[in-house]
Amino acid sequence: MWWVIVVIFIVTAVVITIWWPSEELQELPCSTLPPKNTCYKLLDIRDALDFEAGHVPGAVNISLGRLPYVANKDLELEHPIIIVGKKDRKSKKAARILKKKGFHHIYVCVDACS
Questions:
Q1: pTM for this prediction
Q2: In angstroms, rounded to a whole number, what is the distance separating the alpha carbons of residues 61 and 44?
Q3: Residue 72, CA distances (Å) to 22, 39, 66, 85 in order
Q4: Which of 7, 51, 58, 112 is deepest in the core (most CB within 10 A)?
């Protein structure tokens, strides 16, 4: 019977991790993106096919699965990162990954940009 409690605890921990927002995560309406002369990076976390079908000009495409491995190669720590994606849950997960990699200025678009 103790294993039922352990399973419930693990499932609860996973659900909280997935749905809980990243600390200090700021939401930014995509309609109010900063001007292009501002130093920031647009990160599109969708798959390559979705990215090719249509994306915000100037966005860097790194799918969520590749993000932990190539974030420091394609993005710079000192630049603010604006995450663009289809789903809010995936954007929050990307923000947590970037936070673990040492990025501090992370924003998420809250409405559809693409």
A1: 0.69
A2: 5
A3: 19, 17, 11, 19
A4: 51
